[in-house]
Amino acid sequence: MRIISGEFGGRHLLAVPGNKTRPTTDKIKENLFNIIGPYFSGGRVLDLFAGTGGLGIEAVSRGMDQAVLVDRQGAAIKVITRNVAVTKAPSRFTIVHSTAAAYLKRAAGHMQFDLVFLDPPYAKQQIVDTIKQLAQAKMLAPGAQIIAETDTQVTYPVVPQFSLTRQVAYGITELAIFQYEGE
């Protein structure tokens, strides 16, 4: 696993030991950023189920100003901390040891994000509820993109204030890209 492109491109990232996380593969990560970017001119990114922190780190490497990396597992937080150290730019990252729900409650109204990654454990997917919480908490900048990584069995209802702009499957993994149309 590595940072694919940008300022930190080519640097290797650690994986979380065990099977409680499922890191996004380099192939999927590269395809994702080709769809949504591939580069950015500033902004904030939230990686809500960060695991290794790879998606948020990649976004900062490609031009986002700042990333908030949230995970509930202590082992993941240790790996994220080490992976952020690889960038040699730790001030551009905030690492939060918390559940997604607790973070959203605590951070409501304090910060807005231009890009949000949602890659929860496949068995515990609550993508639509999380998207609605982000909007209700006023944590999304106008036009923000939300990328959900799920298994291919997920279907999405119409979500007010959001459009589902693209869905792409890679084996058992599917990426869904939502655009925030509120405010």
UniProtKB/TrEMBL annotation:
GO terms for biological process: rRNA methylation. GO terms for molecular function: methyltransferase activity; nucleic acid binding. Keywords: Methyltransferase, Transferase. It holds the Pfam family Cons_hypoth95. NCBIfam families: 16S rRNA (guanine(966)-N(2))-methyltransferase RsmD. PANTHER family: METHYLTRANSFERASE. This is N6-adenine-specific methylase. It comes from Schleiferilactobacillus perolens DSM 12744.
